[in-house]
Amino acid sequence: MKLGWLAWLRGAKERHAPDAPPAVAAPRAQGQCFAGLNDPALLDYIRTGGSAQRALQVSAVFRCVSLISGAIGMLPLRLMKKPKGKSYVGSGAYEEATDHPLYDLLMYEPNSYQTASEFKRLMESRVLTKGNAFARIVRSRNRISALLPIDPSGATVRLAADGAIAYAFTLNNAYFELPQSEIFHLRGFSTDGIVGLSMIALAEDAIGLSREAAQSLLRIYKTGVSAGGALTHPNRLSKEARQSLKEDMEQYSGSQNAGKWMVLEEGLKAEKLEHSARDSQTIETAKHQIEDIARFFGVPRPLMGMEDTSWGSGVEQLAILFVRFALAPSFVNWEQAVQRALLSREEKRLYVADFDERELLRGSMKDQAEFFAKASGSGGHRPWMEANEIRELTGLPPHADGTGLGPPNEQGNS
């Protein structure tokens, strides 16, 4: 059997796909991981029309997935090391482990064809749309040298008798089994702890209704009448009268003639055409479904581009809530998955993975200046931050005189 681009799966156990591949040892809604074309779950999935690709054609779904995965992709994921002499764990207790081979993989280049941003964005988008994301761990001389994403569509996941997770993948008609030690597995929300649930499958009804509402609006604009009003006459107009009326109406067309008053003769009356109740209901349904889909993904209304009275100072608070309650679980999910799959037992005591979300939580320059001034003792406040701690938070290198807390400064100079 020619492996082609699957050559990177070296070391995996290869054999022809069995006639009846083992099913995933989990309930139905298991991240849409199918054993093969004969998997009954696949037929049910196709029948419901819940494919991730089709769901992404719904603008609200695409916005949520691209927003969350884009945020994960843009933020640096660093491997941090506990420095010698530190007996506590907390902010500032760790330093960047630039000498560890995993550091460059997470920060810059996880494989030969992806940047770290592309890798994280792809993996997170698969977690959101399929419930699971997998990457093959490639080792060289007992060190991790690459992380290679694997399409989760052909994955089978089961809990083995020894308590480990066993993975199998069907790719290009080749069937491979891989142990847990060779797979980096990101799970979404799960009810069994083995596989994540597809958000697309969970929100299938909301997404389907949104798609139907969009198609209904499309039919309205394609086949409906979009005239703003009508002129009525008690009698039948002659051909010459209609032509004369048409020429008169052209004087009121165009933006330059907006607001002009019309002179109606011979009993003509103007009537404004309103949307039908059905049309209005369709539009309201479309708006409601955007909000419903956003609720599934935890995205605030303003970030969906919806009209909202919260524009202004309230949006900053919504953005902070979005980071803390929608993105923070993904940060922890990534950090602990790296800890579980990519570090040895000994390394887990010394290293942690850490997302730097400060860029997303950083306020305006004015707010930062006021906060750091108080933190350093300005205005008579009791200082609680060193100068180098402030410099670190603002992306500046440490200063030789930046250690230690200074006395309160009544004049307000930090």
The global form is flat
> Termini, distance in Å?
70 Å
- What percent of the residues sit in helical stretches (DSSP H or I)? 25-40%
Reading side by side through the largest sheet, how are the strands ordered? 1-8-7-6
Indicate how many domains the architecture comprises. Answer: 2
Q: What composes the largest sheet?
A: 4 strands, antiparallel
Order of helices and strands: EHHHEEHHEEEEEEHHEHEHHEHHH
Describe this structure in words.
The chain is α+β, with helices and mostly antiparallel strands. It folds into 2 domains: 293 residues, no CATH class; 51 residues, no CATH class. It has 13 helices and 12 strands. Strand 6 and strand 7 form a beta hairpin. Helix 3 packs parallel to helix 9 and helix 7 packs antiparallel against helix 9. The longest helix has 30 residues. The chain is flat.
Question: What distinguishing features does this structure have?
Answer:
414 residues, flat, disordered N terminus
Question: What topology emerges from the helices and strands here?
Answer:
Layout: E1 13-15, H1 40-48, H2 52-55, H3 59-74, E2 77-81, E3 95-96, H4 101-107, H5 116-130, E4 132-140, E5 143-150, E6 155-159, E7 165-171, E8 174-178, E9 183-187, H6 199-202, H7 204-223, E10 229-232, H8 239-249, E11 269-272, H9 277-297, H10 313-342, E12 351-355, H11 358-361, H12 365-375, H13 387-393
Antiparallel strand pairs: 1-8, 2-3, 2-12, 4-5, 4-9, 6-7, 7-8, 10-11
What is the structure about, briefly put?
The protein is of the alpha+beta class and 414 residues long.
